[in-house]
Inverse folding.
């Protein structure tokens, strides 16, 4: 590593990772405290897994899977709105089962179409589903969760094989929160997520995070891993680490498992290829879903790009795996992480906290961490 490349060898903060967490901390530090930050990023771009780019046909693609921005809290939305204009984000997802497309999350329309019935109201549908539910004394895993809420037919057609494909693990061996992410509805709400605040950055995520880090106090070094510079850069105040914990501790207690994905992009000479942004394939094909992001970026073009997602166990860490083995292992690392705060090293983000967190949640966590740093280093 040529340290000459680094302008500020003595930053107030050393930030590992230029994903949402790294960018938010650097922005707040510069704006509120005039602290300087050096962000080191091992990839050749900023924005972490939210990174998007324009392909050869001029289409914006989400390189690491579709990112559907939604906000649980107006306060977080207001903060991010300083760095981008928005367009609406009405995300519609369908599932391909037995040759037909059904709304996902499961809603009243899905239930009616799948069971070939008509219900006058929610209660009638609930009563019908009640007859299918498999009662469980204790909900121990993802299989119990769906069987007890929707019964065997829906579980087997919409959830079981998708989950096996996505995680490489049977739903019986996954925490109930894995499938519990997906709402279950008895109304006709067709949207993928429950939040009312659903928006897409007008010029994309990379542009959003570029705007966020446009400050002389922030230096970003791409293609640079923490491991390469850590001996030479000693920050005045603190180090913020947003990478995987097991890597930081040199796998002291063993490796945490992650689920990864291969994305295959294919561009078609067609304005639109499919009827909605995402189609899930629980039972057919090796890929889990087909995404036509143009439905939400709203670009106008005679071409359209589809991404196919193939789950795999090796590769970039995308999804923490929520089962007993990893929960217990992470607990051990968490103890070490807690102790490091005394040495002014902080862990935050989806990788560092080994949690399945959405963008609004990690941005909130970063803002909270900044508040703590402000108090400590005032
Ligand atoms: P990341 O975005 O992972 O950024 C961490 C960065 O740190 C990376 O760029 C990495 O290269 C870098 N890094 C790690 N270790 C080192 C090191 N040692 N040295 C230097 N650099 C390092 N969220 C939503 O809200 N809506 C969605 O629809 C959505 N869809 C998703 C789909 C997929 C397939 C995935 C994987 C995630 C999705 N997310 C979604 C989650 C979203 O991507 C995360 O919440 C967000 O990116 C987390 O930000 P972060 O800063 O914690 O981590
Ligand atoms: N899931 C499923 N069938 C679907 C969609 C989701 O079984 O059609 C399960 C699967 O286990 C998945 C989890 O629900 O990992 C959460 O789904 P979500 O769509 O939120 O996953 P993400 O978009 O985060 O990959």
């Amino acid at each position: 590593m040529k340290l000459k490349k680094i302008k500020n060898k003595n930053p107030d903060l050393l930030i590992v990772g230029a994903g949402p967490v790294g960018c938010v901390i650097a922005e707040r530090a510069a704006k509120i405290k005039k602290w300087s930050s050096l962000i080191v990023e091992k990839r050749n771009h900023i924005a972490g897994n939210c990174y998007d780019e324009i392909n050869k046909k001029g289409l914006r693609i989400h390189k690491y899977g579709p990112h559907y921005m939604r906000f649980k809290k107006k306060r977080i939305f207001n903060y991010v709105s300083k760095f981008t204009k928005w367009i609406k984000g009405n995300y519609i997802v369908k599932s391909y089962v037995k040759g037909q497309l059904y709304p996902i999350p499961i809603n009243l329309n899905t239930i009616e179409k799948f069971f070939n019935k008509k219900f006058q109201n929610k209660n009638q549908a609930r009563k019908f589903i009640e007859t299918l539910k498999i009662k469980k004394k204790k909900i121990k895993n993802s299989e119990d969760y769906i069987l007890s809420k929707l019964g065997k037919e829906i579980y087997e057609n919409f959830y079981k094989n998708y989950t096996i494909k996505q995680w490489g693990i049977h739903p019986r061996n996954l925490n109930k929160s894995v499938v519990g992410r997906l709402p279950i509805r008895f109304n006709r709400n067709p949207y993928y997520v429950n939040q009312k605040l659903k928006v897409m950055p007008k010029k994309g995520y990379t542009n959003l995070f570029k705007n966020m880090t446009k400050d002389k106090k922030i230096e970003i070094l791409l293609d640079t891993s923490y491991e390469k510079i850590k001996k030479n850069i000693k920050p005045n105040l603190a180090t913020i680490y947003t990478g995987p914990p097991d890597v930081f501790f040199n796998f002291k207690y063993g490796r945490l498992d992650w689920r990864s994905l291969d994305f295959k992009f294919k561009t078609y000479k067609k304005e639109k290829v499919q009827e909605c942004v995402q189609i899930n394939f629980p039972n057919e094909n090796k890929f889990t879903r087909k995404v036509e992001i143009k439905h939400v970026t709203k670009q106008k073009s005679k071409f359209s790009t589809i991404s196919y997602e193939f789950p795999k166990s090796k590769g970039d860490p995308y999804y923490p795996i929520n089962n007993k083995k990893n929960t217990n292992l992470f607990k051990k690392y968490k103890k070490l992480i807690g102790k490091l705060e005394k040495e002014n090293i902080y862990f935050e983000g989806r990788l560092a906290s080994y949690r399945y967190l959405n963008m609004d949640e990690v941005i909130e966590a970063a803002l909270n961490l900044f508040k703590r740093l402000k108090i400590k280093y005032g």
Q: What stands out?
A: The chain has three domains: 1-46+213-254+320-378, 47-92+191-203+258-312, 106-180. The first strand starts at residue 13 and ends at 16. The radius of gyration is 22 Å.
